[in-house]
Amino acid sequence: MQDKSRFSLTKFRAGLMATAIAAGVAGFTLGGGNISPVTQSYADAVKVEAPATFSFANVVDAVSPAVVSVRVEAKLEVASAEEQFDLDRDGRRFFEEFFRRSPRGEPNRGPRGKRFGASQGSGFFVSDDGYVVTNNHVVENGSKFTIVSNDGSEYDAKLIGTDPRTDLAVLKVEADQEFTYVEFGDDRPRVGEWVVAVGNPFGLGGTVTAGIVSAHGREIGASRYEDFVQIDAAVNKGNSGGPTFNLSGEVIGVNTAIFSPSGGNVGIAFAIPAALADEIVTDLIEDGSVTRGWLGVQIQPMTSEIGESLGLDLKQGTIITAIEEGSPAETSGLRSGDVISQVEGKPIKGPKELARVIAGFEPNSQVKLNIWRNAEEQTIAVELGTLQRVSNGVAGDDSSKPLRLGKLGIALEKTENGLVVAGVKPGSPAARKGLQVGDVIKGINGNPIDSATELQDQLKSARQEGRKSALLQIERQDRAIFIPVPIRRG
Q: What CA–CA distances, in Å, run from 282 to 140, 290, 291?
């Protein structure tokens, strides 16, 4: 009985303590036999004021009617497996041009063995009366052009002009209506700014992707006039020729190339900057072609070693390796070994920048060059000549044949010094064998040549003899080298 009382008292005390603990947890405490409330203090939780909803919808709504699909019908040659832009067999990275063929990637075959292809790219109106900007490689070799607007309307278009050196082209729609159009932006976008790419990838219709500007002044080895804007928006095959916009609806670039080791988008795309595109497009609309200033020099980059050997503390600039006979450079007194550091007060970082700057002047312009000669700086005035035009392929323009060898993948310029390589198609046989922009082709298979026609004739002869390759004699930076290139049949 006594044991039961002791057990009951212990049980009662334990229960009372448990009640007190529970009450304390609930915000009360036991004191003086009474239960009283206690107010506890806590710091405020972190709060973030949500910004107004961010959206690209207003930009897209405004610009989409101006963005179009460009369909091109053309006679095509079926490329060999080695000429396809899929994988670089040497493991080297290369820059891939956009999709040129049908959505399945194969050319369509016409009757009686004729081969026809339908390629599809993007473009955009730059005037209310129907001028459309796209890429040269979208319309190249085209015989019929169709513009498809975002509402599905289709219009026939004619080719006004192309500029292979910058990969730009202009088409014209003749229709009794006004079109919604967009304008090129005046301000260069800052790295990190939002941009919106609108185009027609894979023939799906109007598609929008967004990203930021990653860099300016990118060079990818496709031509001598490169100054690309790099963006990280998902730009795919078929976006070629389409615009990239800032958030004000201004075109900041024309999408032209992607970096793609496997053929898919990896978030690195390149666009022709608006300032350059605006200048070229204006010339094409007004004249059907582009005229460029010509200096007449062969050049190579400056290095610290070259600077040291010349007694110069220069790490950038362009050194002249050769002067073309009868050129503006020769007339003005420029010499081999001169280092060009500025043009009209603008610092020159390297050969491609010099080529772009000189080409930006009108022929017959008076230009002041800052040069270094014998470790002393001088100023030389030059009256620029006219860079030889390359035919734009417009129907009826037979002034000259396009200096382009499609199977090798190179574009050529005829100069006083010989045939100069003006462009190398990424992934082409020429690119894989190491041909570079600026190389001068002096001969083939031991035979001297000085025209594209002679080069084509020699390749044809070698093909008929059953040869699998031809040996090109190249002059590069005052050095003679030999490069074997494969010969394609038929």
A: 20, 9, 11
Element housing 12 (H / E): helix 2-25
The 8-class DSSP code of residue 54 comes to: P
- Expressed in percent and rounded to 5, the helix, strand and coil fractions of the chain are 20, 35, 45
Pick the closest to residue 74 from 103, 121, 134, 116 (CA basis): 116
Can you list the positions of beta strands (E) in 348-390?
Answer: 366-373, 376-383, 385-386
Which one of 149, 214, 223, 240 is the catalytic residue?
Answer: 240
Among positive and negative, which fits the CA dihedral 308, 314, 320, 321?
positive
Per annotation, catalytic residue among 69, 122, 137, 223: 137
Read off the pLDDT band of 16 (50, 70, 90).
very low
**390-416: per-residue pLDDT in tens?**
433 222 222 333 345 567 788 887 776
User: Which candidate in 163, 167, 278, 338 is catalytic?
Assistant: 167
β-partners of residue 366 are 383
Residue 5 scores a pLDDT above 50? no
Q: How far is CA 24 from the centre of its chain?
A: 70
Residue 137 catalytic? yes
CB atoms within 10 A of CB 292: 23
Q: Are strands 95-97 and 108-109 parallel, antiparallel or unpaired?
A: unpaired
Provide CB contacts within 8 A for 372, sequence distance 6+: 310, 312, 314, 317, 338, 339, 341, 378
Helical H segments across 374-483, by residue range: 429-433, 452-464
Burial of 26 (0-12, 13-18, 19+ CB in 10 A): exposed
- Asked about 167 being catalytic, the answer comes back as yes
